[in-house]
Design brief:
The protein has one domain: 3-Layer(aba) Sandwich (Aminopeptidase), CATH 3.40.630. Helices cover 34% and strands 27% of the residues. The N and C termini lie far apart (43 Å). It has 4 helices and 5 strands; from the N terminus they run E-H-H-E-E-E-H-E-H. It has a 5-stranded mixed β-sheet with strand order 1-2-3-4-5, with helices on both faces.
């Protein structure tokens, strides 16, 4: 049976491993287990920062998605930044990503969020197709970063 739930501290090692898979394929990031565990703990330990959801199958975490909380002055509402979305490679094309996204989206609606925003690598066509299939549209906004 496959279930989706809010992540707990006990899920941090499994989620850190999933993030290693994700960051190994992204251009701007590299896996760093210590940093990933610290970041996961910050989210799980402080729900005002965000919420992580995990997909569990036969007792193993096989996917995750995290929504970080912020505020849109344009909307005058809470909005979410989808920070991480990853499914274990051995469980891709089973509908796990769609289940995670539907669960997270429904949760965000129930919590009064007005929008979910996310970033992907410009050349990650597979992710673009997935997010489009989930109702996301390409924004005209361009991301800028300043590392501190």
């Amino acid at each position: 049976m496959t279930t989706i739930r809010i992540a707990t501290e006990q899920d941090i090692p499994a989620c850190s491993s999933l993030l290693g898979e994700l960051f190994a394929q992204e251009h701007e990031f590299t896996p760093d287990t210590t940093a990933q565990k610290t970041g996961l703990g910050m989210i799980i330990g402080n729900p005002s920062l965000g919420t992580m959801f995990v997909c569990e199958k036969k007792g193993a975490i096989i996917g995750m998605v995290s929504l970080l909380t912020t505020v849109s002055t344009a909307l005058g509402r809470k909005v979410a930044l989808l920070e991480d979305m990853v499914v274990n490679p051995g469980h891709r094309n089973e509908g796990i990503g769609s289940m995670l996204m539907e669960f997270a989206t429904d949760w965000a609606k129930q919590q009064g969020f007005g929008r979910i925003t996310l970033l992907t690598d410009a050349d990650n066509r597979q992710a673009h197709r997935f997010y489009t299939s989930q109702g996301f549209t390409v924004s005209e906004m361009i991301a800028f970063r300043k590392m501190l």
